[in-house]
Fold these 2 entries.
Entry 1:
Amino acid sequence: MSVKIFDSSEVQDFLRLASGLDGKAGSARAKEIIHRIVSDLYKAIEDLNITSDEYWAGVAYLNTLGARGEAGLLSPGLGFDRYFDMRMDAEDESQGAKTGTPRTIEGPLYVSGAPVEQGFARLDDGSDPNGHTLIMHGTVRGADGAPMPGAKVEVWHCNTKGFYSHFDPTGEQTPFNMRRTIIADAKGQYRFQSIVPHGYGCPPDGPTQQLLNLLGRHGNRPAHIHFFVTADGHRKLTTQINIDGDPLLNDDFAYATREGLVPPLFERTDEASIKANGLSGPFAEIEFDLTLSALIDGEDTQIVDRPRLAVA
Ligand code: MBD
Ligand code: FE
C-alpha cells in the first residue's frame, strides 16, 4: 500500500475521538498519553506499511507477554529502564546535583518483605551445591561523605543457576533466599555472607527471548547484585554491582552495567581471612561503599513507585 491518510482530518479527528479528547470524563493525563502513543503507532503503520498480519501478530504477542508475566522483562531488554536512568542522570546534571554511587536499573525481580538484620546478614540458605561463598561489605555514606548508621540496605541476587527466590521455575528455593534488609551498624557499615551469583538468562521459551531472537540479540545478564539504599535526608539509591570478570560485563541485555559499579573481587584463601570471617574454606570478598545523594529541595527525585511483589 502506498496511500497516505494519516495526516487527513478524518484520521486526526478519529484519533482525538478514540483517545477521549472530545469528552470531559476520564483522566486528562491518560488521554494525552494515549493520544500521543496511538498516533505514533498509526503513523508507524502507515510509514512502515505494517501489514494486518504483522499487527495481529503483535496483538497476540502482547497477550502472551502478559500471560507469561514478562512485560517487566521486555522493558529492560528494549532499554526503557536504562532510558529512565539516562533521563534522571541528565536531570541531575542539568541541576548540578551532586550524585554519589551511580544509579542503575531495578529490574523486575525485587520482592518486599525480606527479613531485616542489624549490621550483618547471611543471605543464602546454604542449599546451593555450587555456591562459592561471598563476603561483601562496605560503608553507607551520606552526601557529605560521612557514614550513615541506621541506613537501610536492601540486597537481592540470584543463585548459581541464575534463578531468584519467588521467581524460581524449579521451585527449589526457600522464601527470601538471597534477599535481606540490612541496617547499617554504628559505623555505617553493612556486611553480608552469601554465594557468588551467576548471570541471569531470560526464559528461553518465553516471549521476551522470542523477540530478542528476532533482533539477533541474546537475553543474558552478567552476574550482579541489586541494592536499594535508603537513609534520612537522602534520595533512595537503586543500583547494582557486577561480578568482575563476568564475560558479559559489557554485553548486558538489560544495559545495567556502569562505570563505578564493578568493584574488584578478591579470592581469599589464607587461614587468617577464613577464620576472621568464621568460614571453613576459601571465599570471595568484595568491598563496596554505597554513597547516597541529598534530597533536592527537600524532595526525593529518584524514588520510583512501581508495582512490586510483596510477600508477608
Ligand atoms: C534480572 O535479574 C535483572 O536484574 C533484570 C534487570 C532483568 C532481568 C533479570
Ligand atoms: Fe537481577
Entry 2:
Amino acid sequence: MEIKKVGVLGCGLMGAGIAQVAAQTGYPTVVLEVNRELLEAGLKRIDQFLAGGVAKGKVRPEDRQATLSRLTGTTDYKALGDCDIVIEAVVENLAAKTEAFSRLESTLKPAAIVASNTSSLSITEMAVSTKRPERFIGLHFFNPVPLMKLVEVSRTIQTGPGVEETVLGFAKSLGKVPIRTMDRTGFIVNRLLVPYILDAIRALEEGVGSITDIDQGMKLGCGHPMGPLTLLDLVGIDTTYYIANIMFDEFREPRFAPPPLMKRMVLAGFNGRKTGKGFYDYSSEPPRPNDFLAQR
Ligand code: 3HC
C-alpha cells in the first residue's frame, strides 16, 4: 500500500514533531488537536523549530515555507478521512487514546493504517478497541522528533500481512531508521532507558549527588549527549511518570516504579522544559538547577 497522505492525532511535543517530519519529507499532512488553542500552540511549535533550523543553516527558508504549506491543522476528525496512515500521539492514557480512535473510526477510510506513538501502552489493547486490529501497529518516535533518527515499529499478533512492511518503508521515507520490536510495554528503548532515568531521581533523592553532578557524571563519564535529569526535563516529568506507572503495572518490578519525588514534581507542575521548571529552571539561559530541589 502506498502512503500518500498522513494524519497525526495530537499536536503536543511528539505530535508536532511527527507532523513536522511528515510535512518536511513531502507528505500532505493533517494534524488534529482537541481545541483551537492547543492547535495554535502546536503549529507555533513547529514553525519555531523550522525557524530555528533556518537560523542554524539546517533548513532552507524555501523548505520551511514548503513544509508549512503541506501542513493543515484541524479540530475536526473529518479532515483525516482520506489519510492513508494516521499516527496517534495523544496523551499517554488508554482512555484518551481509545476515545480518539473511536472518533477517528467513524470517518477514516477502511484501507488506512492506524499507528500509535505510545511508548508504553499495549498496542494490542489499543488495536482491539478499534474495528481494524489487522491494520493497527506501533510506531514510536523519540524526542526531539525532528532530530532523533530512531523509530520503533511494533506489530502485534493480529497485524495483517504487508502492514509492517508498509510502515517500515514509510518510516524510512521520513528519514528515520526503524527497528522492529515485540508488543511489550516500553519496547526496546524505554525498557532500558526508564529504569536508568528513574535511578537518577533515586540517586538525587538519596543525596548521592547534586543535579548538576549527576548529569555531568553521565555526560562526561559515559559520553551521553545529555544527563538523565536534563533528559527527563526534555521528555517531560509527567510523561515519564505516566510511562513508569504503566511499565510498573505491566511488569510489577520495582525498577519501573516512579520514585516519590517524581509524583510530587508532577503535582507541583514541575514537568520540565515545557512548563519552564523541572530539575532545572528555564527562566534564564543557561538553565539553573531548580532551587527548590537544591535546598532539600
Ligand atoms: N532544525 C534543524 N536542525 C537542528 C535544529 C532545528 N531547529 N536544532 C538543532 N539542529 C541540529 C543542529 O544543527 C545539530 O546538527 P549537527 O549535529 O549537524 O551539528 C544537531 O541538530 C544537534 O543540535 P544541537 O547541537 O543544537 O544540540 P545538541 O548537540 O545538544 O543535541 C540533542 C541535541 C539531539 C537533543 C542531543 O542532546 C540528544 O541526542 N539528546 C538525547 C535525546 C534523547 O535521548 N532522546 C530520547 C528521549 S526518550 C524518548 O523520546 C522516548 C519517549 O517515549 C520517552
